[in-house]
Structure formats: structure tokens, C-alpha cells
Write a structure and sequence with these properties.
- By secondary structure, the chain is α/β, with parallel strands linked by helices.
- The protein has 14 helices and 9 strands.
- The strands form 2 sheets. It has a 6-stranded parallel beta sheet, with helices on both faces. It has a 3-stranded parallel beta sheet with strand order 1-2-3.
- Strand 7, helix 9 and strand 8 form a beta-alpha-beta unit.
- The chain is globular and about 60 Å long.
Length: about 300
């Protein structure tokens, strides 16, 4: 069971083996940081998720960060967190035979990319601010839908002829073509604090694209230390110092790109493949030995 689906009660009360996979609920701290109101329905959703965790015989968290986030919620609510034997961290997996690196070197200026559902002013404001700090020729490739704040930041940045000349924006991409866009990038820029996992980061790594992220959140667990840079900085502050540190990280990746790119692909294959994810779920459900017996 993923999260809290519509028929959660039927699933929880059923007789079939059950693992609940849980992400992160809406965070009051993050809502405050991005000037979004923490709504009553967020609280209700957190309570529903809490109950699902308590009633599930086994629970998978999508990162160590998410697991500890929930442990804090249980502590603040005066609840007992599930026993360690009944919980496990399993990362999302992807098809690493589909998301693959480019077969030929990129003969373009350095391309800094941003992909996914672009929400919150900080997503593009920090990208453009970081770009202005880079002292080498580069391009920006933005792929994904934008909310109103990101559109505002994009339109404001495009007034600058130099920024407009080095920026390419693709609003929607067929999922089948998505790896082609990753392969046009030298580095993925992802400035979100508190990211539970970050599937776009896993996709980038599988395509041999190193990433730059803040050190607070799930991505730090599989990005550091050699397939990208997790920047240690004051969380929830997307200020000039944050952009300076992100620019320094991008510059470091540029100066050692081949090694970072090789390590990115290796990390995805070893830790983020769908095969590894399935095997870990089967092992957690104690089904692996039965499947192996049937195969034998």
C-alpha cells in the first residue's frame, strides 16, 4: 500500500500480506518557509498517515530522512514508533536500462538543468541567481510545469537578454523522451530543502548526470559524496550565501565532471534500480526464499 489510498480500511483489515510505503506529510516548517498556509486538511492527512503506520504490520519509508521525520512526529504525539524489525528504508527504483547516459560526449557549453514539477518561487529564483554567479560559459535547461510563482520568476529573468539567450524552457515532455533531456545536461540543480526522496535526482543519476542539492533531506543519502554535492547550508534560507555555495558546488562538478558522471551512473545502478527495490520488498516480506524455492 502506498500512502493512504481510498480503500485504506479494507486494505488494513484484509488478510493478505501488507507493506505500507510511506512518504513525508506536509511540513509546518516548510509551509512557513515558502509562505504557504498549513491547512487543516494537512493535519487530517498526517493523522490518517500516522494511523496507517500504526496499523500496518510492516512499513517502508522512502528515505532515512523520512523515517526520522516520522519518528519525530510519533514522539511529539506521544506515540510509540514501530519496532525496528517492522520498518525498513527502501528507495524508489527506476528502470536503469531506460534512463541511461549519453553514448557520446556532450559537445556543448556546460548545461545546468532543472526538472520536475516546479513549485515555489525559490526553485527558479535560486537557479537564475546561481547562474549569474557562474564565471564560465553555460546554458540553462528547464523541463517541467511551473506554478504561478515560478512563471513570475521565469518571466522576470527573461527580461535580461543574456539570461534569455542561455535559457531553454520545455513545459511538457512525453515520459518516453525524458531521458533524452537529462542526457543534454551536465549537472542537475535541485534547491529544495526537505526533499523526501527526489525521483528526478535518481533519474538524473541514472543518466550519468551529477546533481547539486541542499544537504537537508533524503537526497543527501544517495548523492554524497561522489556522484554529486550535498551543500551544507542554513536550511530554508535561499539567500545570496545559499546561491554562492550552490554555484561553488556546480563549479566543482564542472572541474571534475567525468568522475562525477561515472559515479552518478554507478550509484543509480547499484542502489536505485527497480530490480534492487523489488528484491528489497520481497526480502522484507520474507517472500524471497519462497520464490527461490519455486524457481529451483
Amino acid at each position: 500500500m502506498m500512502g493512504t489510498p481510498r480503500h485504506i480500511e479494507k486494505i488494513l483489515n484484509g488478510s493478505k500480506p501488507l507493506i505500507t510505503t510511506m512518504g513525508k506529510p506536509e511540513s509546518r516548517e516548510e509551509c512557513e518557509a515558502v509562505n504557504v498556509k498549513y491547512l487543516p486538511e494537512f493535519e487530517q492527512q498526517e493523522l490518517l498517515m500516522t494511523r496507517a503506520i500504526m496499523k500496518s504490520p510492516k512499513v517502508v519509508f522512502i528515505s532515512k530522512y523520512v523515517k526520522e521525520f516520522w519518528r519525530d512526529i510519533f514522539r511529539l504525539r506521544g506515540l510509540s514508533f514501530p519496532l525496528e524489525d517492522n520498518v525498513k528504508v527502501i528507495y524508489h527504483g527506476l528502470n536503469v536500462d531506460w534512463f541511461i547516459p549519453s553514448q557520446k560526449p556532450l559537445n556543448t557549453p556546460f548545461v545546468l538543468g532543472s526538472t520536475g514539477s516546479l513549485r515555489g518561487r525559490f526553485r527558479l529564483a535560486t537557479l537564475f541567481a546561481t547562474s549569474r554567479l557562474l564565471e564560465f560559459d553555460h546554458r540553462l535547461l528547464i523541463v517541467g510545469s511551473m506554478d504561478s510563482e515560478c512563471k513570475e520568476e521565469y518571466e522576470k529573468a527573461m527580461v535580461d537578454p543574456a539570461m534569455a539567450a542561455r535559457t531553454k524552457y520545455i513545459s511538457w515532455v512525453d515520459i518516453k523522451l525524458l531521458p533524452d533531456y537529462y542526457r543534454q545536461m551536465h549537472c542537475l540543480f535541485h534547491p529544495r530543502f526537505g526533499e523526501p526522496f527526489g525521483i528526478v535526482l535518481a533519474e538524473a543519476l541514472a543518466c550519468g548526470v551529477p546533481v547539486v542539492v541542499p544537504a537537508y533531506g533524503g537526497p543527501k543519502e544517495f548523492v554524497a559524496p561522489d556522484c554529486g554535492i550535498a551543500v551544507e547550508c542554513e536550511r530554508w534560507k535561499w539567500d545570496n550565501e545559499f546561491c554562492r555555495q550552490m554555484a561553488s558546488a556546480v563549479n566543482e562538478i564542472r572541474n571534475n565532471h567525468a568522475n562525477f558522471a561515472e559515479a552518478a551512473r554507478k550509484r543509480a545502478v547499484e542502489y536505485l534500480s527497480i530490480e534492487k527495490t523489488v528484491d528489497e520488498y520481497l526480502d522484507f516480506m520474507e517472500l524471497s526464499r519462497w520464490i527461490n524455492r519455486l524457481k529451483g
